[in-house]
Amino acid sequence: MRPDTPAENVDHTTEAARLERTAGLYPEDAEALLLRAAAHLELSGDRPAATALYDRLLTSGDSLEYPYLVRALKASNLWEYGHEAEARAIIDGIRTAAPRDAAPWVIVAEALEAHDELETAQEVFTEATRLLTTDGARPPQPVHPLFFGRHRVRRMLGLAHDEWDTLADTLHSMPVSLDELHDPKRVWSLGSDNPAELEAEISRLRAELGAYREALSRPFPVAVLHWPAGELTELLSAYPALSAEYPSHEEHLSTIETSLRELSASGTPNLGVVTGTVPSYEAFAASEGTTPDDATLLPQYATTLAARGRAVAWPPETGAGCWCESGRAYGECHGAEG
Length: 338
Hints:
Number of strands: 3
CATH class of the largest domain: Mainly Alpha
Shape: globular
Order of helices and strands: HHHHHHHHHHHHEHHEHHE
Strand order of the largest sheet: 1-2-3
Mean pLDDT: 85
Low-confidence stretches: 1-8
């Protein structure tokens, strides 16, 4: 949720204003856009303005997709500019509510960690890990940061490894091991007077930073447009000129999977699927000053949906549901093709 673009390359205040304007044009995406705007305001140093955006979301009356994430971000932001008591109250409320989403837990625990509340941070990471982990099953990707954060805090506290710390090691895929990455002694070498020690540590940090930037700097994907059966029927009924693009729903789904596989084979990174709706497509066509029966508009619509954060990464993770929304696992559905 927080932009990782270096501050020297972005005017965060201007970007926040742009995102607020975009949220007004696309109210269905306002939550994601305003959260990004708030993150830019935090990076600009205008934390009160960021809090105002979080409050705007929480009091909007709309049904938020991630209400606890908004609360967690607000708490973290409040604590950073002196509103510790209010931040703690929000954190206590989130812990009591026990949301089934990893993101607010991570933000709350990291806020505690950042303010040297290591024992409490370890408790929060453990609560969340226990809540969101199924015995015997490999943790899904969104839960991995809980394992990594818990490992880091326990390492800083000098606690012995347990089963979850060992599992965190197996989930970690970076070149530097978690034990080395989270070793508190590494910080000491940064204060050394020995040039060789400093140079060695700086080299390790550069290698880690490069790996993390590669993992985090995922632009919006190259996205292929997917129409659910009902939406495609409505689309072709209203705009029969598009029938040449979509001879049948089954062929449409098969074409999506084939296109994605071909793009992957050609080395194209960050592939995804975006799901269209007729009202959204009509609104996009109007904003472009054209009519929805213009087939050249379809890839532009897909790209715009992806840029607004609507893409689902392809291929899905092992065991995850298929992108076609059939209800079956991807490996048993379109993932079994070819």
